[in-house]
Amino acid sequence: MRQCAARRDDQRGQTTLMIVGFAGVLFMLLAVVVDASAAYLQRQGLATIADGAALAGADAGATGEEVYEGGFADDGRARQGTEAAEAAVAAYLVDIDAHRRYPGLTFTTRVADGSVEVLVSAPLDLPLKLPGGPGDAPVTASGSAALQLG
Q: What pTM was computed for the model?
């Protein structure tokens, strides 16, 4: 009978250590889920901005001399004016105040093969930072648009 009492005394404090360790694992898991959700939501917002900018660029790019002189490509896409499309993308981002909503926003515009492609990127300040982990993460999204005949 005395052996059972001695064995119980030796294991005292084990449960506390397990609870503390389990709480630490739960916190890390919570931080990963919250940060991943924040990154997903920012990527969705950037994708919406990229799509709108690409549409604005395709619309403005198809009104220049390239369309009237070059017409439509073999696949039915309107030829795009590079300068007009790039200017329209920049103006669209200013009009919707994208740089205020996403501080540090950068974008690139590519006009090729009758389409306008826009790549936007912005840093995300992670809501919950794990010790030793990054403080922010770049989030990128892209959108493209083309005007098609008929």
A: 0.76
Name the strand (E) or helix (H) holding 99: helix 98-101
pLDDT in tens, 93-133: 999 999 999 999 999 999 887 789 999 999 999 888 877 77
Q: What's the gap between Cα 112 and its chain centre?
A: 23
Q: Is the separation of the CB atoms in 38 and 30 below 8 Å? A: no
> What is the spatial distance between Cα 131 and Cα 21, in angstroms, rounded to a whole number?
16
Strands (E), 11-126: 106-112, 115-125
Distance of alpha carbon 108 from alpha carbon 86, whole angstroms: 9
Alpha-carbon distance 132 to 75, whole Å? 51
| C-alpha torsion 127→133→135→138, nearest 10 | -90
Q: How far apart (Å, rounded) are the C-alpha atoms in residues 49 and 16?
A: 50
Among all chains, which residue has been given the structure tokens 């103006």? 91
Whether 116 and 146 have beta carbons less than 8 Å apart is answered as yes
